[in-house]
Amino acid sequence: MFEFWEKLVDTLVYGVLGLDATTQKAQVLHFFIYDTIKIYILLVLIIFVVSFLRTYFNTDKVRVYLQGKSEFTGNVLAALFGIITPFCSCSAIPLFLGFMQARIPLGITFSFLISSPMNNEIAIALLFGLFGWKVTALYIGFGLLVAIIGGFVVGRLGMEKYVLIPVVPMSGDLEDVEIKLSLAQRCQESWGYTYDILKKIYPYVMIGVGIGAFIHGYVPTDFIVQYAGSNSWYSVPLSVLLGIPMYSNAAGVMPLIEVLTGKGMLLGTALSFMMAITALSLPEAMILKRILHVRLIVTFFGIVGLGIMGVGYLFNAIL
User: Fold this and answer.
1) Does residue 150 contact residue 110 with C-beta atoms inside 8 Å?
2) What are the backbone angles phi and psi of residue 233, rounded to the nearest 5°?
3) What is the pLDDT of residue 202?
4) C-beta of residue 296 within 8 angstroms of C-beta of residue 302
5) Is 70 helix (H, G, I), strand (E, B) or coil?
């Protein structure tokens, strides 16, 4: 699929620009141009397809479906619904509040809040394009497991009293509103959403690919292996701790994951780093602090952090 683009970039960098393929400068430029093209193609294709499928769902339908479900079943369904909802943890918070208004238990809403940024179409598209379907399937499965177990534990702790703002429950039962759109309308809406997402994330893609290109060309492999590529017990928790203060989405951090794993970092360690960035960000904590007590936020971050570390260790053990 990408052979044409790779040959085109080869012609541009080594032919038109006349750069020597053995130099670091040429390798960095080639990596930057080729990976930017590849990532944008993947994003457009996958986001459009997922957006088209999303036109058959709406948030009211999700809330109706979750309302009244048993605890564990609700955790599973909320985690699954997180895949087709907003791609960013901060943008998922309004839906989180809407679920609480719909009298959906706190633990189930947390399963959604964990899954939504971690298992989104952008992460799935880039993982599939960069690492193949096996790694993508494992990532989705473990990501859902973290969301389900994390939400279930939060629900069992009975921490509803730590919700700081009064959430007025919706009166009566929610109605399942069916949205009827023609095929042309669904395609138009899907393309509009895809274009809107690309406008929001293209700076992250450029920055992520740029940093990745620099690491690819100038950072020695031995350096990465020495400090982050070992199978030491501390490599995974260290990657999680380093990821939390950062804020990005999968589009921005995935090029770094590709380069770091290529330089010798174990895949589980790299994915733990990505999960921590996308699911446990400081901006998310600052927003949540306005609606949740610090104890609940710390509990949430602690449970999810442990789950992410578990995923990292599992990936390192089986791959």
Assistant:
1) yes
2) -65, -30
3) 77
4) no
5) coil
Mean pLDDT by runs of 10 across the 319 residues of the chain is 80 86 84 83 77 69 65 85 64 66 80 79 74 85 88 87 66 54 85 80 76 73 61 81 69 74 82 80 70 84 86 85
Q: What is the DSSP string of 182-249?
A: -HHHHHHHHHHHHHHHHHHHHHHHHHHHHHHHHHHHHS-HHHHHHHHSS--TTHHHHHHHHHTT----
Identify the burial level of 26 via C-beta atoms within 10 angstroms of its C-beta, where 0-12 means exposed, 13-18 middle and 19 or more buried: middle
CA 63 distance to own-chain centroid: 22
Give, to the nearest 10 degrees, the angle between helix 24-54 and helix 121-131.
Answer: 130
- The β-bridge partners of 163 are 292
pTM of the entire structure?
A: 0.68
Nearest to 249 by CA among 298, 200, 313: 200
So what's the pLDDT on residue 200? 74
CA distances to 45, 201, 254, 265 from 125, rounded to whole Å, are: 8, 14, 10, 21
What is the DSSP track for 12-40? IIIIIS---TTSHHHHHHHHHHHHHHHHH
User: How many Å from the N-terminal Cα to the C-terminal Cα in the chain?
Assistant: 26
Report whether 159 contacts 106 (CB < 8 A). yes
Distance CA 90, CA 68 (A): 26
d(CA 121, CA 43): 8
DSSP 177: P
Are the C-beta atoms of 113 and 78 separated by less than 8 Å? no
Task: Name 292's bridge partners.
Answer: 163
Angle (CA) 102 107 112, round 5°? 75
DSSP character at residue 82: G
